Automatic annotation (TrEMBL):
Protein family membership: Belongs to the metallo-dependent hydrolases superfamily. TatD-type hydrolase family.
Binding-site positions, a divalent metal cation 1: H7, H9, E90, D213
Organism: Helicobacter pullorum
Protein name stated in the entry: Hydrolase TatD
Residues binding a divalent metal cation 2: H138, H164
InterPro entries documented for this protein: DNase_TatD-rel_CS (IPR018228), Metal_Hydrolase (IPR032466), TatD-like (IPR001130), TatD/YcfH-like (IPR015991)
GO CC list: cytosol
PANTHER family with a match to the protein in the record: D-AMINOACYL-TRNA DEACYLASE
GO molecular function: DNA nuclease activity; hydrolase activity, acting on ester bonds; metal ion binding
Superkingdom field: Bacteria
Amino acid sequence: MQLCDTHCHLDDKRFEGDFEAVLERAKKAGITRFVIPAAHLEDLERARELAHKYEEVYFASGLHPNYAYLYDEEFLKSFLGDEKCVAVGECGLDYYRLEEALAESKLGSIEELKRIQKEVFVAQIKLAIAYEKPLIVHIREASSDSLEILQKYAKDLKRGGVLHCFNADFQLLSLAKEGFYYGIGGVLTFKNARKLVEVLPKIPLESLLLETDAPYLTPHPHRGERNEPAYIPLVLEKMSEILGIPKEILIKQINLNTENLFGEVFGAA
């Protein structure tokens, strides 16, 4: 088995002490390629450094919606031309922590913060269009607004994108026809994942990707521990069980999906 963890924050400080051991455990588990999405501008230098040090590691240039008020387009552009930069993101809309983000941003209102999130999301979509890179999308409690924006620009996104940590919202399934993929991670193994379990069979196999969001969202039975790419097989096992499809078939299709989204270098070895 050789798979890609399409969304793992390996630049997080929680991996500093044993980064190479984390990679080694992942490889033993059959995870051989890794995409580090940027969340904060401060993450990008570290992500690029890791991508250039380790052949199997790649990164994306973008800004998480929680930090949209810090947007610096020229800074993001300085990374997008890098040969190891495979996407724009993670970017999108997040209405879950608006009060917290408002306090940090020192903006005047929630509505102003939402407006800035939308503007910055659109700006990053336009970067993905200009650089012909796929989009890594973060959506939390903002499905309707996100869908409206993505539908407006989908036809211009030649490389499509992935809805990271797919939230199981039925209305977002329409984006599969627009070239979007759905990142499935540890949440699928949670006891309270009934909605995702219900929605999963409705996602075309040609639109599925695997991710961890490490160090977050650790799958069962490791809840409470730091998540890492080596746990991808736990998600694959649960996916196979829910869909009633052998793991070998899922692996083949998901590898093809990953290659279609991120490029030939992500094809199964």
